[in-house]
Amino acid sequence: MSSRVVGRGEGQKQYTARGSVMFFKALAEQDDGDLSLMERTLPPNGRRPPPHRHTNCSEAYFVLEGLVSVVVEGEELTVGPEGFVLVPRGTDHTFGNAGEVEARLLVMHAPAMDVYFAGLHELWNRAEPPTPDEERALMARFGMEVV
Predict the structure, then answer these.
(1) For the chain, percent helix, then strand, then coil, each to nearest 5?
(2) 67: which residues sit within 8 A by CB, 6+ positions away?
(3) DSSP 23-81
(4) At 122, is the secondary structure helix, strand, or coil?
(5) φ, ψ for residue 140 (rounded to 5)?
(6) Which residue from 121, 70, 75 is spatially nearest to 96, judged by alpha carbons?
(7) Please, which residues bridge with residue 63 across strands?
(8) For residues 59 and 117, is the Cβ–Cβ distance under 8 A?
(9) Alpha carbon distance 78, 43 (integer Å)
(10) Spans of the chain below 70 pLDDT
(11) What's the pLDDT score for residue 1?
């Protein structure tokens, strides 16, 4: 793949899950798996991922619009536009929209996790939403431990 400018609401791949739209701007296949980067929307009152930790990557959030709640090791952080939170590998966390309007943020995983989100998209775009056990099994396949 050649380098190119990827604008707002654009991505190499697009996935949806839990009411969220994810535009992957950087994929594992572009950089030997070093990192993935997505622009993600979070609807107000949307479903959060279960609290979890990544055993194989770090995750970072940079809020573009709205308010995002990031719970790290039990501490809730409310992050507004241009706020940044790093969640190092092995750290318990979850996140969701903390406001009344859609939030938009950049989420980076290093090493890359875009293949997990492709699987999440498949689960959430069936006739019936996944069971918690199905979602947890997918998480476990990609080095995520529910806490």
Answers:
(1) 15, 40, 45
(2) 78, 79, 80, 97, 98, 99, 103
(3) EEEE-GGGTTTS-EEEEEEE-TTPPPPPSEEESS-EEEEEEEES-EEEEETTEEEEE-T
(4) helix
(5) -60, -40
(6) 70
(7) 105
(8) no
(9) 16
(10) 1-2
(11) 57
pLDDT (tens digit per residue) in 106-117: 999 999 999 999
Return phi, psi of residue 18, to 5°.
55, 30
Q: Which two tokens stand for residue 117?
A: 């989100």
Q: Are 48 and 132 in contact (CB under 8 A)?
A: no
What residues contact residue 105 under an 8 Å CB cut-off, 6+ apart? 39, 40, 42, 61, 62, 63, 64, 65, 66, 68
Q: Could you identify the residue written with the tokens 């775009």?
A: 125
What rounded mean pLDDT belongs to the chain? 95
Query: Given this model, what pLDDT does residue 4 score?
Result: 87
Tokens 């654009």 correspond to what residue? Answer: 10
As given in the structure block, the two tokens for residue 5 are: 């400018």
Distances (CA, A) of 104 to 8, 9, 58, 138: 10, 10, 20, 25
